[in-house]
Design a protein that fits this description.
The chain has helices at residues 3-9, 14-22, 27-36, 41-51, 76-86, 97-109, 123-133, 149-157, 174-180, 202-211, 225-228, 234-239, 267-274, 280-283, 287-296, 300-323, 346-354, 378-393; strands spanning 63-65, 116-119, 140-144, 161-165, 186-190, 217-221, 243-248, 261-264, 327-328, 336-340, 358-360, 370-374. By secondary structure, it is an alpha/beta fold. The protein folds into three domains: 3-51, no CATH class; 63-72 and 301-393, Aspartate Aminotransferase, domain 1; 76-296, Aspartate Aminotransferase, domain 2 (3-Layer(aba) Sandwich), CATH 3.40.640. The protein has a seven-stranded mixed beta sheet, sandwiched between helices. Strands 9-10-12 form a three-stranded antiparallel beta sheet, covered by helices on one side. Helix 1 packs across helix 3 (27-36), helix 3 crosses helix 4 (41-51) and helix 7 (123-133) crosses helix 8. The N and C termini lie far apart (54 Å).
Amino acid sequence: MTDLETELAETIAPEIRDDLMGRGYSRRHLGRIAALLGGGVALAGTASTAFAQQSAKAVVGAVRIGSNECWTGPLPAGVAAGQKLVTEGNRYEPDDEHEKLFAAVAQVEGVPVERVTAWPGSSDPLNRVAVTFASPTRGIVTADPTYEQIWRTGAWLGVKVTKAPLTADYRHDVKAMLAADPNAGLYYVCSPNNPTGTLTPIEDIVWLAENKPKDAILVVDEAYIHFSGTQNAAKLAATRDDVMVMRTFSKLFGMAGMRLGLTIASKQIHDKMMRYDGMQVTNMLPMTAVACGTASLPLADQIAARRGQMIAAREKTIAHIKSRGLNVLPGSHANMFMVEWKGKTPKEMQAAFLTHNVQIGRSWTAYPQMSRVTVGSAEDMQKFCLALDKILMA
């Protein structure tokens, strides 16, 4: 254990330190927990490297369809609300901005306002829920493939991470997930899933909630739910004290750089996640992002229109890819899809596309011959198709 890890372990309150050690964490891992939640700059930097998303650096000027960003910025009403807050940037919170956001979420989702909390993106709550409810004796269960951050967080913490393959139609296999580790502390479902874009039916999510260990937590990551327009798990998190739903404004709302995420969960879950530093993280949200999110969330017609634009571009692109004899993983309900290459590796295809100024995504270990492609604007996807034709003819 390094001196810094020892130092950071001592920054955790004694009663919390005792609880964590009672769950099987060593002092070395306590130091890492403190770093993960902001307890130390040097070690936290190492932690960030350990579980940061492994995506290529953005190529300025290229068609950027590799990181699941939205092809355009925030909705106009959100831009206006954020700009207004810029003029009031001398205040920490000009006018109950947090409460306005929570009220908007409660109204749109039909959930109690006291179950809504906001974060600077989704990474922080995803790390915290792993620290809070998993441990060396109570592991984490996910699908494979899925969004990988919680794998890296678990590895950093010394927590067992168990991965269950998707079903034949690319849903989370919730029964296999439970069978893989019936005593886990945390079950993680990403729906629509990243990188496949596929949905796990709400009935399957409910089954897992009802059959997992009573003291385990089910986390449903719905970062892409607004692109699907389908039934979500918000009501489940509103009625159960062992389910947390995660949302973000980084995707359909076009606010990735503004850093705003949400969780819907019981007060007990949020209190446990916050016990390391109180409400400090939530209270430090950028007010421009909060105002932008509050103004954007109720705009159902504009959300549906943006969803429709994405679906049209996605389906036209997939049809073009298939016409060239390539396979695309079926069933995406999000702004991404997986393409299976023939004769070249995903890294070779990334490099080939970059020669045509198009930046696509990477592969996942479960599907080593496939690349994830983000759905951009109609113009972006036309450029992707033209680049693909040139690569295949070369």
